Amino acid sequence: MTSMKAPALPVGLDALAPLYKACGDPLRLEILRVLRRDTFGVLELSQLFDVRQSGMSHHLKVLHKAGLIEPQREGNAIFYRRPLHLAPGQVGVVDSAAQQVFSTIDRIPVAGHLQEKIEDIRSQRADQSQAFFARHADQFREQQELIAAFDLYAEPTADLIRARAAQHEWQTALEIGPGEGAFLPVLAGICLRVVAVDNSADMLRKAQQTCADEKLDNVELIEGTTATLLPKNERFDLVVANMVLHHVPSPADIFLEASELMSPGGYLVISDLRRHDQDWARENCGDLWLGFEPEELNVWAGDAGLETGETLFIGLRNGFQVQVREFRKPESQTQQ
């Protein structure tokens, strides 16, 4: 009697099997849920879910094999995130299924106790960054220029902003993380009112001195973060973040909060590093993240309802590259 072979599965179905198998565990779905916008390491995820590191590593391996997460190297550390969105027309069966999974689980709010643990991890990261700037406040410019001299990215950023300002009647601007305040004269010369928010009291004191030296009487300095400003219900025509994202605990949240703080038709302008592998920047410059791929910023901006505008790349001799990015909030977008 001739043995009957089972018919081969179509390639698409064969590839879908590990994806749906990976989704058959509630903990893995929870992991995918908290990776919606955040990037976490194995130890951080173990802390979030009270799971041993070996167990968490197993779950991450299964999710990675299924294409539901991808590793992100930050120097000697490995973090995990969801895959970046693919461009229209490039989404296959597996990618489409993954996006459906993400869309479904994202409708379920993160449990309160889990959100508290996420905030604890973000606070730990913020404390690490603040401690660095407290120790090196007097050497801020020297530390930053180990990577990029201020003028190399500030001048192209200022040129882009001035070009847009000539087309609009901007009244208000917000700078996130002004540092010593070197960019504040540019904004103060364009807008009638400028707010600068920084979570480092040491850096704010230096920014205050810059305002006094430059006689900037239309600048208000606030200690805190973008989240601090949300309850004030003030909206800004322009939001700027120069070399800030790689210092903040959750870069994706900056886009969400900036969008909420922007007026319809407003602009967000960001200058920051492209992804690199120079791990010494974490120790010597207080960096939490080793730069970002442009696609990452595009995804975060899209999730925040912002449209991607002009992009400029600036190559530096020491192997770093700075990206100057422009994002716009549509006129029709409803204020939150």
From TrEMBL:
Give the molecular function GO annotations: DNA-binding transcription factor activity
Q: According to the UniProt entry, where is the signal peptide?
A: none
Q: Where is the HTH arsR-type domain?
A: 8-101
Q: Which domain of life is it from?
A: Bacteria
Query: NCBIfam families from the xrefs?
Result: HTH_metalloreg
PANTHER family linked: TRANS-ACONITATE 2-METHYLTRANSFERASE-RELATED
Q: What is this protein called?
A: ArsR family transcriptional regulator
What is the species listed in this Swiss-Prot or TrEMBL entry? Answer: Marinobacter segnicrescens
